[in-house]
Amino acid sequence: MTSSIFDKVQRWVKWVLPFYLFTFLPLSLLSQTLKGSAPSNVSVGEQFRLSYTVNTQDVSDFRAGNIPEELDVLIGPNRSMQSSYQMINGHTSSTSSITYTYIVCATKNGTFTISPAHVVVNGKSIASNALTIKVSGTAQSGGSSRQRQNDDDGGEMRDAGSHISGSDLFIKVSANKKRVHEQEPILLTYKVYTLVSLTQLRGDMPDLKSFYSQEVDLPQQKSFSVETVNGRPYRTCTWSQYVMFPQMTGKLLIPSITFEGIVVQQNRSVDPFEAFFNGGSGYVEVKKKIVAPGIEIQVDPLPERPANFSGGVGQFNISAQLDKTSTKANDPVSLRIIVSGVGNLKLIKQPVINIPKDFDKYDPKITDQTQLTSNGLEGSKIYDFLIVPRHQGKYEIPPVEFTYFDTTSGSYKTARSESFTLDVAKGSGAGAVNDFTDQAGLQELNKDIRYIKTGEASQKGLDNFFFGSVAYWVTLVVLALIFISLFIVFRQRAIDNANVTKMRGKKANKVATKRLKKAALLMAENKPSEFYDEVLRALWGYVGDKMNIPVEQLSHDNISQRLSERQVDAEVISQFIEALDECEFERYAPGDPKGNMEKVYEKAMTAIEKIEETFKKVKK
Fold this sequence. Notes:
Elements: H1 2-30, E1 34-37, E2 41-44, E3 47-54, E4 59-63, E5 71-88, E6 91-106, E7 110-114, E8 118-121, E9 124-127, E10 131-138, H2 145-152, E11 158-159, E12 169-175, E13 179-181, E14 186-194, E15 198-202, E16 211-215, E17 225-229, E18 232-246, E19 250-254, E20 257-266, H3 272-278, E21 283-292, E22 295-300, E23 309-322, E24 326-328, E25 333-343, E26 359-361, E27 365-373, E28 376-389, E29 393-397, E30 401-406, E31 411-416, E32 420-425, H4 439-442, H5 470-498, H6 500-524, H7 528-546, H8 556-565, H9 570-586, H10 594-619
Parallel strand pairs: 2-10, 11-20, 13-22, 23-30, 24-32
Antiparallel strand pairs: 1-3, 3-6, 4-8, 5-6, 7-10, 8-9, 12-14, 14-18, 15-20, 16-18, 17-18, 19-22, 20-21, 23-25, 25-28, 26-28, 27-28, 29-32, 30-31
Helix pairs in contact: 6-7, 6-10, 7-9, 7-10, 8-9, 9-10
């Protein structure tokens, strides 16, 4: 009996199970879909839901389609999971799904298409349907009374999906001085004003060729205070500070910085039971970009500089210390020079010490004891010189001078250290006594009297001279030809190097190619944000260097105009501008696939190559 049952089970496994695996399992896989949904018609300023639902929970690597920049993503993606179980006539069935939801705000009229989203299910990529949304008219201005009431009550936590305007969160930029002299420190302050619950803020100062800058250390834990602006109480704090030392003169622009902030909002529609079991939350984080405006600084040149100018700008003093006032010949002595004060201490030149010629001097050991404050660099720089007297006697070490530009009086000042007298006694080593009667005396250097040369000497005839010989004149001619050739070569090179604009234009393509190679490596490492930043640098840098356009004048319109003037084809110009637009857009596109990076990379490379070809044809 047992054997017959076992045989039946064996036959079932042999025939029925393969039939199930090859018939029903593929059908179940084919039934898994990713469906996108959104309203087909919305108004300008209206917020709506964009959602993608996949009917399984075994998913990974969800990537949304390209959302046009006219549809501003306020929140998302928020992930929620749903499961249900049914039992009918003893048979149990279950269904499950995952939904990814965005809160989007329409900002401009038009018809916009959102490309299909993608998700990986059981190792296979599934695409959703594309969505078309028509935006027209203006949203009704109701429904904000509740939010306004919350603001009046002093609450900072707003409802999820609430719009964050420029008056709700902004950054003020200020400088303690807007007119300075070259190398005079400026304190640049970025101060945040917020009416919302700001939890994070990130933004970095770009590399500035016109300034030497250092960031002031501020507490990591920010402390907010209340400040009234236009009748509204804002929570505010100093977010970052920089001390800037201008290296050039004229009107210098500190460019605007785009900060990325995280604002927390309350999601009142979340079911607490679902939040507990499905990992949901009553709060959502919204990314908000805040642009800190640029600021102009007028930098005046320093007056005509004296010959002994140290490069110091600020207020300084100098002092000196000698570790001993009496020593023996050939024994080292330490001379310490201390330059202290406030200003550009890191950029000053090494003080010059004048010591007697019978002394040896070695390069100093430099100790930096400066700290960055709101006034600039404060503290001191210490120079420890090692000097060695070679002969006995009494020597005077003169004072050390330090000439600097005083920003308070607007004039040059010279600070002096004290002088020293050093008594040097007879030493035990060679050269301690000026005695020329023995072999040691014959080894003296840096003296007026030299010893007679000893050993064998060669003799020549009276009329045997190199001067006036054939070899002499041939040598002169060869040297003259070499000199003339080198003069022509180096003169042309100096002319080319002096033409900075020409050199930048020549190197523009090489620099852009180098940056695009780095972008290709970032694309291979799947780092989209860094990839798009590098491609943008390549594009902006190329046109700026090639056509000598200052950074502050770089814009889409200006680039188009300048390229047209250089006889670049309109289609090539359009392709270059599209590469810029797509690159700027893709930096913030959620779930950016690698295919988009490849498309942007190819478009940027092709645009630069075509522009370069056009410039070469025009030159011919």
